[in-house]
Amino acid sequence: MAIKKSFLSAFKKASRTTYFKDLRKFEGRTFEETSRFTGITVELNPLEATIYGFCLDWYTRYEQGMDTECPVSTYDNMRYYFLSLNPMAYMELLDDEEYDEDDDDDEYDQDEPE
Prior knowledge:
Layout: H1 5-14, E1 31-34, E2 41-44, H2 46-63, H3 72-85, H4 87-93
Antiparallel strand pairs: 1-2
Helix pairs in contact: 1-3, 2-3, 3-4
């Protein structure tokens, strides 16, 4: 799977923040995270856990009015990177809408105004 340049650029920018925790050094390990929306536990690989941790920390800082140390576009690209890697985990951990595995292959349909 080819990784979008915007994802790689965002990862590089995110890695320069003081709150970035790179868990990729734990290759082969599985991390468990529990959804704050549903209570469901999801397993993540080290890259997914790194991206998820960054997204949580960025948003917490944003909500508290703290300096996020990188623009919202970096946060957005990191979220989309996580979504591309593990759609189920993304929907459970970062999106408050219910995850439906059948939607993975569906194209995003945007309702048009009537």
